[in-house]
Amino acid sequence: MVLEEHEQIGLPVECAGLLSLKGLKAIGLKPEGHYVLNRQLRGARFVSPGGRELLVEAGEPVACVVDRHLLDLALAEQAERAGAEMLLGRKVLAISYLPSGISLSGRWGSLQAQVAVVAEGFRSRLVRRLGLRTIDWRRVLPASQMELRVPDLAEDLVEVWLGSRVAPGLFAWVIPLGDGLARVGLACRRGLDPRELLATFLRRRLGVRLPPCLRRPPYAGSVLTCGPIPRTYADRVVIVGDAAGQAKPTTGGGVVLGGLCALLAGRTVAEAVRAGGASAEALRAYEVAWRSLLGREFKAMLLTRRLLDRLPDKALDLAVRLASELGLGHEVASVAEMDFQSRVLTALPRLLLSCLIQRPGAPRPPRP
Fold first, then answer.
1. Is 269 in contact with 278 (CB distance < 8 Å)?
2. For residue 134, what are the domain limits?
3. Does any domain span residue 266?
């Protein structure tokens, strides 16, 4: 049984909707589904604070943009076909233990279960009540986003704009939806207003002053760059998704990694129930499984995020310029994966050396 706090599945939407094709398949969804708006994305154009560009482009599509509302509806239909019951408007406010199970309760009433999967999002109220450490709120960034027509838009490339003048604390994005439309947004440090920064960025990117109705874009949600919480299970309970901090610290994306963890959670819970118990010791297998799969990824992405947070704009400009001049974008595209980013980070020294060797006029390495 799924207890959904909202009255409609998939609303409100708080997601940029950019997913890798590999990741979509990994969580059991079809890249050609009706929820896909643009499946032709081959790479990204990174724009430094000073306007320098680095193109990371693959030879074929590697990502797509989805309508997150339709995607959530498709997931709900899939769950119902598998035997799940969806109850809307059922916000769970408390979890309490019973001699033979647990009780989930809210203003709507209560029900009993053998085990619960907490997927309440980044607010983590239930996680705190279970006595587990919640996500680091200092690394939960406010974000704003809107959809509009963008001139000079490459339909197969995402734009990522860096720098403290654009989006201090993260970056701004332009994600093509098709037919000249794009999803444009940014996230920034806590204490700043992402709507004001987005309005400024839109004037810069579009080259025109926005009409009054667009000068204050809507607030769209939050981006997690904190990484996972220390423990994602308790007696008869497991934690998944944003509530567990299972989002990429580099970009905040959580659909694919959170989905992979949710699959592991479902399998662990099912096995525990079939075995006749869902104790903390039995559910610990969930944490062992997801950390075995993704622990290295989260460590690499957290390290990268901390490094990027410390880089001044001049250093970002220099890095983008050198990477572009050396042709590093092409080398990175050959090994890059949106979700498993440690592979790129590990390969960077080798790729950089390869670019230096291939650069015209560069000294050749000595023969052995």
1. yes
2. 1-359
3. yes
